[in-house]
Design brief:
With 119 residues, this protein is mainly beta. Helices cover 12% and strands 34% of the residues. The longest helix is centred in the C-terminal third of the chain and has 14 residues, at 96-109. The protein starts with a strand and ends in a 10-residue tail after the last helix.
Protein backbone atom coordinates (compact mmCIF):
# COMPACT_ATOMS: atom_id res chain seq x y z
CA UNK A 1 0.00 0.00 0.00
CA UNK A 2 1.91 2.94 -1.33
CA UNK A 3 1.31 6.63 -1.85
CA UNK A 4 -0.72 7.36 -5.01
CA UNK A 5 -2.37 3.92 -5.04
CA UNK A 6 -6.14 3.53 -5.09
CA UNK A 7 -7.49 0.71 -2.92
CA UNK A 8 -10.94 -0.65 -2.25
CA UNK A 9 -11.41 -0.01 1.49
CA UNK A 10 -14.13 -0.88 4.00
CA UNK A 11 -14.92 2.43 5.73
CA UNK A 12 -17.64 1.05 8.03
CA UNK A 13 -18.47 1.61 10.81
CA UNK A 14 -18.72 5.39 10.62
CA UNK A 15 -20.24 8.12 12.77
CA UNK A 16 -22.13 11.25 11.69
CA UNK A 17 -21.11 12.75 8.35
CA UNK A 18 -18.12 10.47 7.78
CA UNK A 19 -18.19 8.95 4.31
CA UNK A 20 -19.15 5.28 4.58
CA UNK A 21 -19.41 1.97 2.70
CA UNK A 22 -16.76 -0.02 0.93
CA UNK A 23 -15.32 2.32 -1.67
CA UNK A 24 -12.12 3.34 -3.43
CA UNK A 25 -9.66 5.37 -1.38
CA UNK A 26 -6.46 7.13 -2.38
CA UNK A 27 -3.40 6.41 -0.23
CA UNK A 28 -1.68 9.75 0.40
CA UNK A 29 0.65 8.84 3.26
CA UNK A 30 4.27 7.97 2.56
CA UNK A 31 6.33 5.20 4.18
CA UNK A 32 9.63 7.11 4.18
CA UNK A 33 9.47 7.89 7.90
CA UNK A 34 8.40 4.37 8.84
CA UNK A 35 6.07 1.54 7.90
CA UNK A 36 2.94 1.41 10.00
CA UNK A 37 -0.08 -0.88 10.10
CA UNK A 38 -2.25 2.10 9.23
CA UNK A 39 -2.37 4.30 6.14
CA UNK A 40 -3.51 7.87 5.53
CA UNK A 41 -6.24 7.85 2.89
CA UNK A 42 -8.83 9.99 1.16
CA UNK A 43 -12.16 8.44 0.17
CA UNK A 44 -13.32 8.59 -3.45
CA UNK A 45 -16.95 9.06 -4.44
CA UNK A 46 -18.87 9.54 -7.67
CA UNK A 47 -18.48 12.96 -9.30
CA UNK A 48 -21.32 15.47 -9.09
CA UNK A 49 -21.29 18.80 -10.95
CA UNK A 50 -22.04 20.50 -7.61
CA UNK A 51 -18.50 19.50 -6.57
CA UNK A 52 -17.15 21.99 -9.13
CA UNK A 53 -17.94 24.67 -6.53
CA UNK A 54 -16.45 22.75 -3.58
CA UNK A 55 -12.71 23.46 -3.29
CA UNK A 56 -11.84 20.27 -1.37
CA UNK A 57 -13.27 17.86 -3.98
CA UNK A 58 -10.66 16.93 -6.61
CA UNK A 59 -12.00 15.53 -9.88
CA UNK A 60 -10.47 12.26 -11.02
CA UNK A 61 -11.46 10.90 -14.42
CA UNK A 62 -11.12 7.20 -15.23
CA UNK A 63 -7.83 6.13 -16.83
CA UNK A 64 -6.15 2.86 -17.72
CA UNK A 65 -3.90 3.34 -14.67
CA UNK A 66 -6.44 4.26 -11.97
CA UNK A 67 -9.06 1.71 -13.13
CA UNK A 68 -11.94 3.87 -11.89
CA UNK A 69 -15.15 3.17 -13.79
CA UNK A 70 -16.61 6.68 -13.75
CA UNK A 71 -15.76 10.33 -13.12
CA UNK A 72 -14.98 10.53 -9.42
CA UNK A 73 -14.18 12.98 -6.64
CA UNK A 74 -11.32 12.62 -4.18
CA UNK A 75 -12.64 14.08 -0.92
CA UNK A 76 -9.65 15.83 0.67
CA UNK A 77 -11.74 17.00 3.62
CA UNK A 78 -12.39 13.41 4.78
CA UNK A 79 -8.73 12.55 5.40
CA UNK A 80 -8.26 9.66 7.81
CA UNK A 81 -5.84 7.05 9.04
CA UNK A 82 -7.08 3.48 8.73
CA UNK A 83 -5.84 0.05 9.70
CA UNK A 84 -4.46 -1.90 6.76
CA UNK A 85 -6.94 -4.64 7.76
CA UNK A 86 -9.67 -2.47 6.15
CA UNK A 87 -7.94 -2.64 2.74
CA UNK A 88 -9.53 -5.18 0.40
CA UNK A 89 -7.71 -4.93 -2.94
CA UNK A 90 -5.62 -2.57 -5.02
CA UNK A 91 -7.56 -0.92 -7.84
CA UNK A 92 -5.01 1.34 -9.52
CA UNK A 93 -2.76 4.36 -9.21
CA UNK A 94 -2.93 8.10 -9.95
CA UNK A 95 -0.18 10.08 -11.66
CA UNK A 96 2.24 12.39 -9.85
CA UNK A 97 0.57 15.54 -11.20
CA UNK A 98 -2.81 14.66 -9.69
CA UNK A 99 -1.12 13.56 -6.45
CA UNK A 100 0.52 17.00 -6.23
CA UNK A 101 -2.89 18.68 -6.68
CA UNK A 102 -4.38 16.45 -3.98
CA UNK A 103 -1.54 17.20 -1.54
CA UNK A 104 -1.92 20.93 -2.24
CA UNK A 105 -5.65 20.84 -1.47
CA UNK A 106 -5.08 18.77 1.69
CA UNK A 107 -2.58 21.43 2.82
CA UNK A 108 -5.23 24.11 2.20
CA UNK A 109 -7.88 22.23 4.20
CA UNK A 110 -5.42 22.09 7.11
CA UNK A 111 -4.46 25.78 6.67
CA UNK A 112 -0.83 24.83 6.14
CA UNK A 113 1.11 27.98 5.26
CA UNK A 114 4.07 26.70 3.28
CA UNK A 115 4.81 25.77 -0.32
CA UNK A 116 4.94 22.14 -1.39
CA UNK A 117 8.17 21.28 -3.16
CA UNK A 118 8.45 18.50 -5.72
CA UNK A 119 11.66 16.44 -5.80
Amino acid sequence: MKQSEIWLVNLNPTIGTEINKTRPCLVIGDDTIGKLKSKTVLPITGWSETYSFVPWMVKCEPTKDNHLTKDSAIDTFQIRNLSTKRFIKKIGVIDSELLFVVHSIVAQTLSVRYKLVVD
